[in-house]
Amino acid sequence: MAFLTTISSNENLFLHKGLGNGFPLPPKTSYSHHLNIICMKIQPSHVAKSSVSQPLQSQEVASKPLNFVFPDFNFDEYMKKEAKMVNKALDEAVPLQNPIKIHEAMRYSLLAGGKRVRPVLCLASCEIVGGEESMAIPMACAVEMINTMTLIHDDLPCMDNDDLRRGKPTNHKVFGEETAILAGDALLSLAFEHVAAKTPTNVSPERVVRAISELGSAVGSQGLVAGQIMDIASEGKQVSLEELEYIHVHKTSKLLEASVVCGAILGGGLVIEVERLRNYARCIGLLFQVVDDILDVTKSSEELGKTAGKDLESDKATYPKLLGLDKAKEFARELVAKAMEELSYFDASKAAPLYHLANYIANRQN
């Protein structure tokens, strides 16, 4: 069941009155202060100092009020068009070549389908700051390569031990554990090579380096890996809300954040634009995991396309487990509202894709 109201693609949205019919902005709760901390306490990664990477000054944060209206926007058509373009670029980036087995394994998981949320976030963030999609397509492919690597490795017997991913047998079930590990490793290294080699020359080398640094930070021992190792360590233990947030911000939100921020950097975004988008991404990144936790306890394996109830079975810390299902849904609504607040800085027509992407993440069913 969708626990947030789905908003049609051709509906005018007045964010100062709410997030659409039946979905008012949530009242002030104990989560409001917590959300502000989420957006402020994680500092930008160790990119080179520049007008893009320097922190925001307090007077820059006020900017525009939350009172703009989105124009008509066909989100379904937009996602189909963008996903088709990303899939074509991914197919070209990983051709079937020798050694055949490793490239078959890479392509099996990389081209398995999905909405391509992270690549589309990257492209939309590039455009919202005035860039062209072509500037960010290699990065969009790179974040999907890395996301696919994490799924392959997460499914391994030594990790989550899953048999099903996107409705298909997991990589190691088809190709064996050794090949699955190497396929993930190959996708990770190819991601950085692809950005360095394929980003068009109208993007300055300085921006390419900053984007690569941002992406590397999101994946490494202070990013995704940190969240993963803490997630493993928390199994079967009582964890606090702060510890759970740390796990999910790093394990899930960091790569979503990098997708958005790298797109903005490559598109030539100003410091305030990049940091507004960073805050937006932190909220929807955490939202993605909160929704994932909720779906794990409310959906079947057939509906999810992967094994349902795995978190409960392994006694992992989740938001429904720690807060209860109703409060987890309330927290998700607050995250959407905070993300919308960050988008109010931008031109409404350019912000429409990112608005609807946040709404999609909130209402996704698998």
UniProtKB/TrEMBL annotation:
Cofactor: Mg(2+)
SUPFAM superfamilies the UniProt entry points to: Terpenoid synthases
A GO CC term attached to the entry: cytoplasm
GO molecular function, one term: metal ion binding
Top-rank taxon, per record: Eukaryota
GO biological process: isoprenoid biosynthetic process
Keyword GTP-binding applies: no
Keyword Transferase: yes
Pathway recorded for this protein: Isoprenoid biosynthesis
Keywords per UniProt: Isoprene biosynthesis, Magnesium, Metal-binding, Transferase
Annotated family: Belongs to the FPP/GGPP synthase family.
Record's protein name: Heterodimeric geranylgeranyl pyrophosphate synthase large subunit 1
Species: Forsythia ovata
